[in-house]
Amino acid sequence: MEIVRPQWKPPSNDIVSTLPLYRSAPALEVRLEDFELYAMDRLRVLKGISDGLSRGKKPEEMKNLVNDLWKVNMKHPQASEVFNKDVISHFVLRLVYCRTEDLRKWFLSMETALFRHRFRLLTADSQRALLAELGLPYKAVARAEFEVIKEKLVQVARSISQPIPSSDAIFYKVPFEEVPELVAGRRIFICKGHAYVAMNQVVSLVVTQFRSLLSKALILTNRKWTSMIREQEKDRLTPIVESLCSSYLGPDYSQPNEFAEISVKDIDLVAKSSFPLCMRHLFEKLREDHHLKHGGRMQLGLFLKGVGLKLDDALAFWKAEFSQKVGAERFDKEYAYSIRHNYGREGKRTDYTPYSCQKIISLTPSVGDHHGCPYRHFSEDNLRAALSRMGVNNGAVEDVMDKVRNRHYQLACTLTFEAIHGLSCDAGINHPNQYFSDSQKILKLKSHSSEQGESTAD
Amino acid sequence: MVEIDNGRDDMLIDGQRLGNAATDGFNANYLKLYYGKLFPHADIFKWLSYANDGKHPACDKSYFGRREFSFTLDNDIYLRFQSFSNESELENSIKEKCPFKIDIGPVYSVDPAKRHAYSQSGNNVFTPVERELIFDIDISDYDNVRYCCSGADVCLDCWPLMTVAIKVIDISLRDDFGFNHILWVFSGRRGVHCWVCDGKARRLTNEQRTAIADYFRVYKGNENSSKGVSLTGHALHPFLVRSYTEVLKDFFETKLLSSQNLFSTQERYEKILEMIPDESVTSEIRGKWESSKRSSISKEDINVVRWEQLKHTLQSGQKKAQGLRRCVEEIVFSFTYPRIDMEVSKHMNHLLKAPFCVHPKTGRVCVPIDPKHCEEFDPTLVPTLSQLLEELNIGGLRADDDNECDRTSLGKSLSFFRSSFLRPLLKSCKEEMESLHNAKLQQSKNSLSW
Which positions make up the signal peptide (chain B) (predicted)? Predict the structure, then answer.
């Protein structure tokens, strides 16, 4: 085994000491066990960020969370190794998460979130240095222009409860396309296509750039992986890489479990017993209105696919409902395509994966929509009513509402699961299909033991 | 719906006898004539070529041919990924297939008709590369704030909601985002479509499209939460302030209040009181209104009176501190702010119906709407297919083969499309092409001169 030779010694063990852009893989030799251990440690950080985001933590809470995660997982007894551990773990995970679009997407958002928080902790000088390193050629807005738009800048700052810019505040003028997240939140003043970015928002510019560099890099890594590395490393790295992502993130439920296969006639039964509230609600609305808008069809349709509904059964199921409202012909014409599409039989022929809790929580249901996460998107009254219809008792409803108020939507769902099944669910609910399969397991066990009870009584 | 009363049972068009004029103004035979004589194939081709059909060395000859068209045919057959390499292919195909609906998709990296040939190579090379930034606004999404109609129905009392949507979005697209080439189109029945065609709009990524759609997103209600609009922060964003003071407030107070009778019954005003989070205020107001029901027989519009009372109560001195002032704005926004179908705008590969299609249910043509004069637009006066053919028929007797279109009521819409949208668009496309070309030449010169 070779000893790792650090290329460069960072000054301290602190998170703010240095923030690499991960432009190129390090020319380091790494011990095989470090390869895996470092990656696991970083994965713990990213997974922690992912959990935090899906619980809807506020930026301030996220800051502390990321800080703690980093300190706990990314330290190293040798100060000189900290920087290397950062870079090595990043590049190992690139290999792990380059291989499918969903993996890339997840890795990209978590690494970007991590980068964002680490950037915020840098000193102003280090931030400017990084800006320069990224080659972002922005000039501060000139005094005269600043005076003209000052009133608007103040308005924006007040609207997002930020300190009012002083007269010597620095703003950068950039094309609005480069700060999409600031545009989306109406957190900047935009005029004629230019966005006026305050110094404390520069992180957005940097993050956008970081994200796009990493996104491109992941595509390239994927190409290299499939064309060379996988084969070359098939006895050494490939097994590590392949086990890393599945061991940690759990299944994505794209392939229904071989035991769990349901047919159309069973759906009503299992919907009552084992669907999480989000799916139960969609299911009931579909039965009631014989229609669901696009978002609802996607969320429920992919869930049912994950549950084990075969394409032909899915078509029959949706048709039975929709044809009552729009007629069988219109169903065949307008809706059947998208169901086959979900099953990878149309369009670009991707076999789509069922939505995870994180995805569902992040959706934005609008007028006429029933999808999304009830714990997040229902009003309090509607949620209470829905829970009691599910058979959750009053005490448990209060516990659930408490979690909801603190924006712990998945914990709220977990409590609901426990209240209904009368058993604890230690792993928590992360995926509607996990809710379903856990519920089915419990119900099978119960019916099994009651059968046994009967037979001994005989 | 405009019914044609031509005093005849049959219409004579182009020497052929047609059956009775269909009451819904739409049938396949009419459509064939429409595509043959009136549909502006050439203009659609010019538009979607974005000057790439010219002689300039920087023209991308493959550009138009990589655009997806999608046809919905009479017998409910749905043809996706149609593509055409030139104007006559497009025109011939439309005339031959006579689609009930033509949708326009994105420009792909390769000819969409040949996508399967590329999909073999593994690395997803078949991918959308350009697409207008589009918006779709449907009146049916306003059902919880209109009492005159519901679903796909629309009348002159609720249509102004669309006018307001056009104004708010159009002003922001131009002033905030700096876009210039914006086409608004009547969707044929219950809403409007918007096509932003500037080069930089067409090249936006999905993430950037989503950001713009989110910028416009204020209404957050869904079927299971009545929350609607919640405006937080110490002030409103300049975009919201402008929308409120220049468009929404005035529209709400001078039009919508009375036209929708927002306060006329208990059921209706209760819906508004629900938006006020302070019990003491709502019960105070409620008390006033319940007693006034019996006493006052004012000549003034009860909706206006009650709105003024509500505003007064919310904005009066001691209530200000409790943050209730924002409620006034929240109510106005809830009732009037545009409700965009977000999904349509977010992704490049969403299809949108082409302008100048005929809506199969209403028979009305999807004509452009001038955002500068959008309050004058009347959806009930939009020409229908049967009306147009009738006009064509009358004109035909005067025998003059060119510009048949100009003699019909579609002529005005077409000349607006050409002069206000197409001409300025193509001019700037050519300029952009020229300057890019020059920059490239300059660059290659520089690289040659070491």
Answer: none
